[in-house]
Specification:
By secondary structure, the protein is α+β, with helices and mostly antiparallel strands. Helix content is 47%, strand content 12%. The protein has 4 domains: 96 residues; 103 residues, no CATH class; 212 residues, Gcn5-related N-acetyltransferase (GNAT) (Aminopeptidase, 3-Layer(aba) Sandwich); 112 residues, no CATH class. The strands form 2 sheets. Strands 4, 5, 6, 7, 8, 9, 10, 11, 12 and 13 form a 10-stranded mixed β-sheet that branches. A 3-stranded antiparallel β-sheet has the order 1-3-2. Helix 3 runs parallel beside helix 5, helix 4 packs antiparallel against helix 5 and helix 22 crosses helix 23.
């Protein structure tokens, strides 16, 4: 969750400018150096860049002794790598980052526990990851990851995936109960492989006749990742990019964010598979090392990675999900925000008709950068890709059940950029509190006030948005339930056959004479959507133009890029308005 001063999210500290003018030429102590580096890391100019290099040199000669100070230094160096002012500053930061693990390892083991789950080089992280992420870890970091046996309370849950690839000759031993799960793994696994995890994943990948993803998910094995010396650690993980862009200042959001967002972002391209795989690798490492996950990144589609150039070395990678893991009437994406190839933030965005649900998460080392400006540019990218006219932020993003968001005052980050509550009562409360905060000397919002404001959503409407186009997300479970009812209403045996029968009947109602010439992926998408689309009655009475538009939307769900579906959905108002009416009636 983004940390931001609720009253003033200014990206340059004027107090630091004043302090810099009084700063002596030579650092009197490394403690003072640490504080100074944090104070000036987001300020630019030839003299300041020289100071940054001097500070890094002094800290390299005499590194901090406490782990907390080392963690702060690590964050500052990452910031300077992402937002350098001069090539020499970038070189100094990168060189110091190469030494940071040595400094970490000199601290007592108990002190190093502060690094756990941070993703820093030399740290350890533990989490129950999705099967594709575990597969990715075994491919990219085989010797660094293992099943966390010590924290696996019920490791017998692994018996199902183990039995799935056990050979008949083994089963007398496996089924006997004479061996624990871990003992059996020690007996059965290939010992030329580095870890138990590597053996299990390779065995699952080469076996057939079962769904390895489902078996692994049901077993819920915790994974521990030892990032000692790892290229995938937060410390070293970055996309290869040249030339590096040197900063002269941090950018600020425009005075009218909504009008600016409505303008299409020109510099968007879809990456070729090789480039897409590199971006997916960096994205997965950025999240996995920090023990975080986004579904569409776990199940990333290498055929749909949109690269959005945000200028000044900043970029946004918008990543679609593989067709099997797509939603029905929504389009679901994950994203990674980068600066000079360094991951600085992540999140997700879900497009539904003419609205999109999203939020922003800036990684700790990069707070105090130009998050507000980048957020506006990101929304421009989403508007361009999906054709949406409203953005929705759910309450969790700014405090509902999220203590960190309350502490940071994240509500005001969104409010300052034009997001407003839906209910009139909350609009009035927010306006009163914003007026109070604008007064000189006002104290930050109390936690109780922020918790009250965090109930419900915040929305930002772009010019031309029609309130009648809003889809209440609370209705989505009804879509699934009614689709299930449609399938249950078919008198045919298997549910797959029932789905196919519904698709055939729907095709006739929409004037589709034959689907034989369609690509197989489009036929599957049409059948997959048929139970949900069939919720709307009297489709046969629609105009031919409306029917063709709906068929085009359904076929687009099977395209290699789901953004085609999102844009087609935004151009199919007759269906979504009829769906809303049916669900609300």
């Amino acid at each position: 969750m983004l940390h931001c001063n609720p009253r003033d999210c200014s990206l340059v500290s004027w107090g630091a400018h004043k302090w810099l003018n009084r700063m002596p030429d030579q650092m009197k102590s490394t403690a003072k150096g640490r504080n100074t580096l944090r104070s000036i890391r987001n300020i630019y100019g030839a003299d300041i860049e020289r100071r940054k290099c001097e500070l890094i040199a002094a800290l390299t000669m005499q590194p901090p002794r406490s782990m907390r100070a080392l963690v702060r230094l690590h964050e500052d160096l990452l910031f300077l790598r992402a937002f350098p002012g001069e090539p020499r500053t970038l070189r100094s930061a990168k060189q110091a980052l190469e030494q940071i693990e040595t400094w970490f390892m000199k601290a007592p083991r108990t002190d190093r526990a502060i690094l756990d789950d941070s993703g820093a080089v030399g740290s350890k992280g533990g989490y129950v990851f999705a099967f594709p992420i575990v597969q990715w870890l075994v491919r990219r970091a085989a010797g660094e990851v293992e099943i966390d046996w010590r924290n696996y309370d019920n490791c017998s849950q692994l018996d199902l995936p183990l039995r799935a690839f056990a050979r008949i000759a083994e089963r007398d031993g496996f089924d006997s109960g004479e061996y624990t799960t871990r003992e059996w793994v020690a007996i059965a696994r290939r010992h030329d492989l580095q870890t138990d995890l590597q053996w299990m994943i390779e065995a699952l990948n080469t076996a057939s006749g079962f769904d390895a993803d489902q078996l692994w998910t049901a077993a819920e094995p915790p994974i521990v990742w030892d990032l000692k010396g790892s290229r995938w650690s937060v410390t070293h993980n970055a996309l290869r990019t040249k030339p590096y862009v040197m900063r002269r200042a941090m950018r600020h959001p425009p005075p009218d964010p909504a009008r600016h967002i409505a303008r299409s972002l020109k510099h968007i391209r879809t990456l070729k598979p090789r480039q897409a795989r590199e971006v997916i690798d960096v994205t997965r490492a950025a999240l996995t090392a920090r023990c975080r996950e986004v579904v569409s990144i776990s199940y990333a589609n290498q055929n749909e990675v949109h690269w959005c150039d945000l200028g000044q070395g900043a970029a946004l990678a918008v990543i679609g999900a593989t067709p099997r893991y797509r939603m029905s009437i929504e389009a679901n994406y994950g994203y990674l925000l980068l600066s000079n190839g360094v991951p600085i933030g992540y999140g997700g965005v879900t497009a539904l008709f003419r609205q999109a649900n999203t939020g922003i998460n800036i990684f700790d080392p990069f707070r105090g950068s130009e998050a507000a400006f980048l957020w506006i540019e990101m929304l421009r990218a989403f508007q361009t890709l999906f054709g949406v006219r409203r953005f929705i932020i759910n309450g969790y993003q700014f405090g509902e059940g999220n203590a960190e968001a309350i502490k940071s005052g994240a509500y005001w980050f969104y409010y300052r950029l034009g997001f407003r509550p839906v209910s009139s009562a909350q609009k009035q409360q927010a306006a009163r509190e914003a007026s109070r905060l604008a007064k000189p000397g006002a104290q930050r919002s109390p936690a109780a006030t922020l918790k009250a404001l965090a109930k419900g959503d915040l929305v930002l409407d772009l010019p031309g948005f029609n309130e009648g186009d809003h889809v209440d997300e609370m209705l989505l479970p009804q879509v699934g339930a009614r689709a299930a009812g449609k399938l249950a209403g078919e008198s045919i045996g298997s549910r797959k056959t029932a789905e196919r029968q519904l698709a055939t009947r729907l095709a006739g109602a929409l004037g589709v004479l034959s689907m034989r010439s369609w690509p197989a992926a489009e036929r599957r998408a049409f059948a997959m959507l048929a139970p949900a689309i069939s919720i709307v009655p009297d489709l046969a009475s629609w105009s031919r133009a409306e029917q063709r538009s709906l068929v085009a939307m359904m076929r687009a769900k099977g395209h290699a890029q789901e953004s085609d579906f999102a844009r087609a959905a935004a151009k199919t108002p007759h269906f979504f308005r009829a769906l809303i009416h049916e669900l609300e009636s």
